[in-house]
Amino acid sequence: MNFNTKLLHGKSIQPYSDGATLPAIAQVSAFAYESAEQQEKVFTHKAMGYAYTRIGNPTVAAFEQRVCELEGGSSALACSSGMAAVTLSLINILTAGDEIITSSGLYGGTLDLFKDLEKFGIKTHFVNPLTKENASKVINDRTRVIFGEVVSNPALNVLDIKSISEFAHEHNIPLIVDSTTATPAVINPIKLGADIVVHSSSKYINGGGNSISGIIVDSGKFKWDFDKFRALEDFSKYQNMAYMVRLRTDTWENFGSCLAPQNAYYNIIGMETLGLRMQRVNENADKLARALNEIDGITVNYLSLNSHPYHELYKTELNGNGGAILTIRVGSREKAYKVINNLKYVHIASNIGDIRTLAIHPQSTLYIHSDKAQQEAAGVYEDTIRISVGIEDAEDLIYDFTQAIEKANEELDKKDNK
Ligand SMILES: *Cc1c(COP(=O)(O)O)cnc(C)c1O
Question: Sites of the modification N6-(pyridoxal phosphate)lysine (predicted)?
Answer without folding.
Answer: 203
